[in-house]
Amino acid sequence: MGKEHCNRSSRVYKRESLRFIKLEKKFDKYEIPVKEKNHLRVLRCKFPLTIKAVCEQTELEIVIEQLGNDLIVKNVKKIKKLEVSGLIVYFPLIDSKRLEWGLEKIIELSIQKIYFYYSDHCFYNKKQIKKFQDRFDKLQNLVEEAQKQSGNLTKPLLFNAVPLEKLYNEMQKPLVLGVHGQDVLEASDIKEMSSLLIGPEGDFSKREYDDFSKRNFTLKKLEGESILRTETALIYMASLNKFF
Amino acid sequence: MGKEHCNRSSRVYKRESLRFIKLEKKFDKYEIPVKEKNHLRVLRCKFPLTIKAVCEQTELEIVIEQLGNDLIVKNVKKIKKLEVSGLIVYFPLIDSKRLEWGLEKIIELSIQKIYFYYSDHCFYNKKQIKKFQDRFDKLQNLVEEAQKQSGNLTKPLLFNAVPLEKLYNEMQKPLVLGVHGQDVLEASDIKEMSSLLIGPEGDFSKREYDDFSKRNFTLKKLEGESILRTETALIYMASLNKFF
């Protein structure tokens, strides 16, 4: 980023750059996984390379040296223990492309945990829910890429889809955003928000709204005339959360 | 939205609902365009239908009645003259999928005008720029869909890609967001922002930064360690602009 004298008519910029790498620890020795080595080669990195690294939830600064055809880790400096922080999000099942996009964006905007759920007004039928659950592992790759892209050293945790009510007991006082929420969202709600339950495309059912009221969840709706899709509302809230 | 007694295992919810329709005026008579009539049929609307409409930048409330096989407009009430408001955005050319997604999202988040540009550190070569310009009309469809989806009655204006410096003279005091911007973005910047020039993936060049300083544009960078992709930064800013 920020290099000069670039010719407009040629592609000289690498679309991707490496912001940190992940290390493995074997018998007190730090090793670069094969996948990361290949990535360094693809990006044509120059060695010795000083770079940030993450291993066992610790941020490190390391130097990577080339030794023959191999890459080895030198000068490991521990920077700090990493704590996962950020918003907890309860994410309804929506159209799979929109779900993936929304997921990528909120991860770039810093999220701690994401729980997928389906509820009374869910567009997925049983078969589709099963398919989503079976393919869940593929989302993890997307998460890892988005995490690396954004330079976040901690990886958000992802939880496979369950019925909404199964999550009630472990929910940490969520701000619930639905079409029939009570008042309009305010800045103070966002400042206090630690977890967010976003409504599905068909909104929550009356039964679900009753459950939320019983449990004293904070029920809000978005302001204004314009109606946001589920994933847009999610990115919108993640943006506000990041800023406040 | 908000209907109850929905069976989780079946798809009873329509993904799309009609929030308003566009009318044509012919010799002082309001007519429903064929495309809108087909849309009403696809959505299996029931008639008479009271619905919002837009015609010649005016918001209307109308009743649509079925007359044999045709649909006609009755009881036209003028609500108000529509004024296009919202953020003006200068949008760099990025990967086409990301561009389309970003575009859709910022339109849902209310935008007035979008100018596409290419600059010193643009990933597109001449051929790709030409291709983008030739295909530009296709983006208009996407804009219309996103506008309808969000229920915004006014359609944002889109301008085809030109070199950045060609826009300088008509730029309305933009907030410039680049990696090498001077200070970190603050709430007051967002409150004052009426137009936004977002940096390309390779950031602005030194020459461009000098141009901005000469013209007294407000130069800022995003806070924090995490790095946002161009389209994420754009959605992030549109979210903040919508909220403030």
Topology:
The structure is a homodimer of 244-residue chains.
Chain A: E1 20-22, E2 24-26, E3 29-31, H1 34-42, E4 49-55, E5 58-67, E6 70-81, E7 87-92, H2 96-108, E8 111-118, H3 126-134, H4 136-150, E9 157-163, E10 175-177, E11 183-184, H5 187-192, E12 195-198, H6 206-214, E13 218-221, H7 230-243
Helix pairs in contact in A: 2-4, 2-7
Describe the structure.
Two copies of one chain form a homodimer. Chain A has about 240 residues and is an alpha/beta fold. Chain A has helices spanning about 35-40, 95-110, 125-135, 135-150, 185-190, 205-215, 230-244; strands at about 20, 25, 30, 50-55, 60-65, 70-80, 85-90, 110-120, 155-165, 175, 185, 195-200, 220. Chain A folds into two domains: about 20-80, Ribosomal Protein L25, Chain P, CATH 2.40.240; about 85-244, Alpha/beta knot (3-Layer(aba) Sandwich), CATH 3.40.1280.10. The first copy, chain A, has seven helices and 13 strands. Chain A has a seven-stranded parallel β-sheet with strand order 9-8-7-12-10-13-11, covered by helices on one side. The first copy, chain A, has a four-stranded mixed β-sheet with strand order 1-4-5-6, with no helix packed on it. The two termini of chain A are about 25 Å apart. Mean pLDDT of chain A is about 85; it is low at about 1-15. At the A-B interface, α2 and α7 of A face α2 and α7 of B.
How many distinct helices of chain A? Answer: 7
Number of strands of chain A: 13
How much of the sequence lies in strands of chain A comes to 25-35%
Q: What's the oligomerization state?
A: homodimer
Categorize the overall geometry of chain A.
Answer: elongated
Structural class of chain A: alpha/beta
What CATH architecture label of the largest domain in chain A applies?
3-Layer(aba) Sandwich
Q: Which regions of chain A have little confidence, pLDDT < 50, spanning 5+ residues? A: 1-16
Q: What's the alpha carbon Rg of chain A, rounded to whole Å?
A: 21 Å
Task: Report the helical percentage of chain A.
Answer: 25-40%
| Fourth-level CATH superfamily of the largest domain in chain A | SPOUT methyltransferase, trefoil knot domain
Mean pLDDT of chain A: 86
How far do the termini of chain A sit from each other?
27 Å
